[in-house]
Amino acid sequence: MRFLLVEDNVELGNAITERLGLEGHIVDWATTLGEANTFITSTQYQVALIDMTLPDGDGKTLLQTLRRSGEPAQSETPIIILTARSTVSDRVDSLDSGADDYLVKPFEFEELLARCRAVIRRKQGRVQNAAQFGDLSFDAQTASLWIGDVPISLRNRERRLMEAFFDAPGRTLSKQHLHDRLFSFDDDASDNAIEVYVARLRKKLGQSDVTIETQRGVGYRLVTR
After folding, report:
1. Which sign, positive or negative, has the C-alpha torsion 100, 104, 105, 111?
2. From CA 179, how far away is CA 163, in angstroms rounded?
3. DSSP code of 173?
4. What is the residue range of 89's domain?
5. CATH of the domain at 45
6. Given strand 144-147, what is the order of strands in its sheet?
7. Going residue by residue through the chain (225 aa), what tens digit of pLDDT does each one get?
8. For residues 34 and 12, is the Cβ–Cβ distance under 8 A?
9. CB count, 10 Å around CB of 78?
10. What CATH code is carried by the domain that includes residue 147?
11. Domain final residue, candidates 75, 91, 124
C-alpha cells in the first residue's frame, strides 16, 4: 500500500516510515501542510496518517481538504489522526470532520498497523483481511496469495501490484496508476518497469483461472479466463 504520512516530528516520522517500509509499504512523508498538499495533487493513497499540529497549520485543514475533494480516490481515502491531543472533544471533532480513526501519541506500532488494516477493511466492506476473485485468495496485510489451496510467494512489488488489481478487479488500471502503487517519488523506475512486473505476476498466475489482461494503449485489468 502507499501511505501518506504528515508528521513534523523527525524521530517519529523516521520510525513510522521505517516500520511501514519493513511491512512492504511505500510511505510519502510530508512534514508540513504545504508538502502534503503537493503530494495529494499528484498521487493517490490507500491510507493517510495525519498529525494535527504542524508548523504551517492544523492537520484538520488537510483532513477537510481530502474529504471535500471532488476526486473519489481522495475523498474516500481512509484517514487516521495521530496526535498528542487526547480530550474527548478533540477526538469527537476529528471524527466528525471525517477522520476514520484517532490514535493518541505515544502509541505502539502494532496498534497503528492494526488500525490501518481495520480502516482499509471497512473501506472495502470486508470483515476479514483476505479477498477472493475467481480461484484466487489474497491477503494484502500478510502478502499471502493462494490459487485454491496452493500458496504463491510474492515479492514486495508483486504484492503491491496484486493489491492494486484486487482493489479494482475487472477494472482497467493505467500504467501511471500502477506506477504510483509500486514506486515512491524517490524510486528510479524505467519506462517498462510496469510491464516487467506484470509479466512476472502473470507467470505466477499460470495455473489460475484468473489472469492479467492487457488493454493495449490503456492499461491492464484482472479478469477470469
Report:
1. negative
2. 13
3. B
4. 2-124
5. 3.40.50.2300
6. 131-133, 136-139, 144-147, 150-152
7. 899 999 999 999 999 999 998 888 899 999 999 999 999 988 889 899 999 999 999 998 898 888 887 676 667 889 999 988 888 888 888 888 889 999 999 999 999 988 988 888 787 665 455 788 999 999 876 778 999 989 999 888 898 899 899 988 899 999 988 998 888 877 878 778 999 999 999 999 999 999 999 999 899 999 998
8. no
9. 21
10. 1.10.10.10
11. 124
| This model's pTM is above 0.70 | no
Q: How many C-alpha atoms does 87 have within 13 Å on its Cβ side? A: 3
Q: How far apart are the two ends of the chain, measured CA to CA in Å?
A: 27
209 secondary structure, DSSP code: S
CB crowding 48-72: b at 16 or more within 10 Å, else e? bbbbbebeeeebbbbbeebeeeeee
Q: Which domain-ending residue is among 76, 94, 124?
A: 124
- Grid cell, residue 38, equals 503537493
> What percent of the chain is helix, strand and coil (3-state, nearest 5)?
40, 25, 35
